[in-house]
Amino acid sequence: MRKLILLAIVGLGAQLVDGSLGMAYGVTSTTLLLAIGTNPAAASATVHLAEIGTTLVSGASHWRFGNVDWPVVLKIGLPGAVGAFAGATFLAGLDTSVAAPVMSLILLALGVYVLTRFTVRGLRTDRLGHPLRKRFLGPLGLFAGFVDATGGGGWGPVGTPAILASGRLEPRKVIGSIDTSEFLVSASASLAFLLALGSQGVNFAWVLALLLGGAVAAPIAAWLVRHIPPRVLGSAVGGIIILTNTRTLLRSDWVGAPDQTRYAVYAALFVLWGAAVAYSTRAHLAERQLTGGSTRTPVEQPEPASEPA
């Protein structure tokens, strides 16, 4: 019972972050499941099954608050579902001893990307209103869906920064659209896992705990997305992902690092993480002063009629 309560709390916290930042539900939840010894394929399957429910509630909540661009949802979500099915099938065929370090490497890379992206760079706003094209969203969705299924998360860490970096869509709509389209990705990955594994290794009580926690947090996150500073939250979440998966890799058969080495690496990462969060906080406060103290995202400009989608 204690483990189920912990999983529900993790699901709630992960969805608060995911719904307000557009990423990290999968990588956070999968990282926890791997840390307690869950089979990598089963961990990813468990998280994706839970995400069917959480993404449905999250998408409805974002739609309610006007955070969804439906053309973007379809253009990225359908290729994402194809990529997720392929990624889940690939992961299910890997040997467990190989899959665990591989998944941790993927998650670690995503953590580094999230930390770097939100610590070093702000959000571009000079191209708001320009349409996002299929030739950009299609390949992005295919790749992000594959990474999401093989890494137990990655749809948000790949998709959200890529669209934010384009500067073509209001940040809150980037987050809402990514969260909503993730329903298609989660359903496709779950189907592939169930076809390949059956229910082997999937604890449906854990699925329900993660789902309930996430469902409670989804409406709150959809409201918070208008107010929360993404730069600070991105740095904090990226650091957590890096620390947890570095621990998994250092303790794996691939590395087998001695205790002294592991503790030294952990200490260095904690210092780096603290510095990143402090830098992001200062940068956010400076940006807030420049905009007169407002933490809201900029208003989206109308799309030019002359440029096709």
Low-confidence stretches: 295-309
- The percentage of residues in β strands lies in under 5%
Helix and strand composition category: mainly alpha
- Distance between the amino and carboxyl termini: 50 Å
- Main sheet properties: none
Q: SSE string, helix = H, strand = E?
A: HHHHHHHHHHH
- Average pLDDT, rounded to a whole number, is 78
**What's the total count of β strands?**
0
Number of helices: 11
- Specify the helix fraction band: over 70%
Work out the radius of gyration: 19 Å
Q: What general outline do the C-alpha atoms trace?
A: globular
How many structural domains?
Answer: 1
Protein name: Probable membrane transporter protein
Keywords: Cell membrane, Membrane, Transmembrane, Transmembrane helix
Organism: Pedococcus cremeus
Family: Belongs to the 4-toluene sulfonate uptake permease (TSUP) (TC 2.A.102) family.
Task: Characterise the protein shown here.
The chain is mainly alpha-helical. The protein has one domain. The chain contains 11 helices and no strands. The protein has helices spanning 2-21, 25-35, 40-64, 70-92, 96-120, 134-151, 155-166, 171-197, 204-224, 230-250, 259-290.
Give the secondary structure arrangement, pairings included.
Layout lengths: L1 H20 L3 H11 L4 H25 L5 H23 L3 H25 L13 H18 L3 H12 L4 H27 L6 H21 L5 H21 L8 H32 L19
Helix pairs in contact: 1-2, 1-8, 1-9, 2-3, 2-10, 3-8, 3-9, 4-6, 4-8, 5-10, 5-11, 6-7, 7-8, 10-11
Protein name: Probable membrane transporter protein
Family: Belongs to the 4-toluene sulfonate uptake permease (TSUP) (TC 2.A.102) family.
Main location: membrane
